[in-house]
Amino acid sequence: MEQNKLGLKENWKQFTLLVLVNVMVGGMVGLERTVVPLIGTEEFKIQSNVVVFSFIIAFGVVKAFTNLISGVLADRYTRKKVLVLGWIIGLPVPFLLAYAPSWNWILFANVLLGVSQGLAWSMTVNMKIDLVGKKSRGLAMGLNEAAGYGAVGLTALLTGYLALHYGLRPQPFYVGIAYTIIGLLLSIFVIRDTRRYAELEAHQIQKTTSGEQSHKPNLWWIFKETSFKNKNLFSISQAGLINNLNDGMSWGVFPLLFISLGVGLEGVGWIKAVYPVVWGVGQIVTGPLADKWGRKPLIVWGMFVQVLGHIVIGLELFNPLIAGLIGSVLLGLGTAMVYPALLAAVSDAAHPSWRASSLGVYRFWRDMGYAIGALIAGIVGAFFGLIWAVHIAGIITLFSGIIVWIRMKETIEKKE
Asked: How far is the C-alpha of 252 from the C-alpha of 378, rounded, in Å?
C-alpha cells in the first residue's frame, strides 16, 4: 500500500499539505520581525536595549525548552496531536500583539508564541522526515524551511508596509489571525499522523553514525548524546545555536540600528525581509545539495558566508540601506546553506527510534540562540553601541564554523 512506503514521491500529497502548514507557522514569527522592536521604543518608550529585546529572549527560551519536550510528546502521543496543540496555544498571539496595553502583555504573547512554535514547527520537521526516509532528507528539510522562512520574510515585509500606511498597531497583526485559523483548520482536518513511517524506517535501519541503537533510550541519554558525547551531534548543535544567535541579534538590532542610521521604515522592512526570504528560498537549492555534496561542506561554508555578511554590515562599506540589503542577502544565503544540512545531519546520526527526541534536543540548543543572541546584543549595544553587536556575532560565527570544520565528520556516504 502507498501509505506504507517511504519517499517524497510516494507521499507528496501529505508532504505538500505540511509545507503549506509551515507557511502559516513561519508567518507567525514574521509578524514580529519589523514592528515589535519599534513598538517597544516608540509606543512604550523603552530606552534599554535589553528590555526591548526581552520579547526575543522570552520567545527563544520558551521555544527552546518546548523543542526539548516536543519529540517526547510526539513519541508518546502522536505528531498530529502535538501539531494541533501548538496551533491552539498560538491562537491568542496576534490579538495580544495587536491590542496589548503594556509591554508585559507583549512578553506574554511571546511566551505563547514560543510554545506554539516549539510544538508546531517541530512537528512539521518530524513529519516530513518521517515521510521521505533517508534518501531525500536534505530536500525535505530544504522545502520545509523554505516555506517557513520564506513566510517569515514576506510577512516581515507585509507588516512593515502595513505599519507605514496604517500605524504600528493593530492592522499589521490582522495577518496573524488568518494564519492561526488556516493553520489550525488544516492541521485538524487534512493532516494525517506520520509516526508509522518512522516505525517502518526503524525496522529497516539498525545502525547510524551514533552506533546501533534500536531500543528507545531515555531523554537524558539522548540529551547527552546530542549535546556533547557524539562529536558530530555536538558540532551540529553548536552550529545551530550560533545560526540562531545571528537571527536573534538581527531580529532585535537591525530595526533599531538602521532607523538610527537614517533608513526609513519601508527600508527596514526590506532589510528584515531579505534575510529570511533568501534563507527560505535558497533552501530549495541547498537542501538537495546537502544530499548530493554532503552535509559538512554546506555547514562550514555557510557559516563563513554569514561572517562575510556581518563584515559588510559591521564595517559600513556602503550607505546604510545598501549595506543592510547586501549583508542580509549574505546572511540569508549562508543560513540557507547551513539550515537543511544541520537538520539532515541530525537525522543521519540519530536512530529513527529516538530521532524525534534528538531533533528536539538539537532544536533546543538551536533556538536558545535566539535568547543568547538577543541578550548579547542588548548588553553589547548598551555599552559599545549596536554596531558592535554585529561585530561580536561575526567573530562568534567564524569560530563556530572552524569547530565544525575540525570536529565534524560527514554523516552520509556520497556516491561516486
From this structure: 8
In a domain, 224, yes or no: yes
Give the number of domains in the chain.
1
% pLDDT > 90, the chain: 63
Q: Evaluate whether 129 touches 137 at the Cβ level (below 8 Å).
A: yes
CATH of the domain at 135: 1.20.1250.20
In a domain, 301, yes or no: yes
139, 176, 137, 240: which is closest to 25 by C-alpha?
Answer: 176
Lowest mean pLDDT among 202-206, 257-261, 332-336: 202-206
| 3 state DSSP class of 211 | strand
pLDDT tens string 120-130: 999 998 899 88
Residue 46: which region, alpha, beta or left (left: phi > 0; alpha: psi -120 to 50)? beta
pLDDT score recorded for residue 416: 42
Task: Tell me how many helices (H) and strands (E) the chain has.
Answer: 17, 2
Establish if 412 belongs to a structural domain. no
282 within domain boundaries: yes
**pTM for the model:** 0.84
Q: Which residues contact 73 (CB under 8 A, 6 or more apart)?
A: 82, 119
Is 194 a residue whose pLDDT tops 60? yes
Instruction: Give the structural domain span for 86.
Output: 2-407
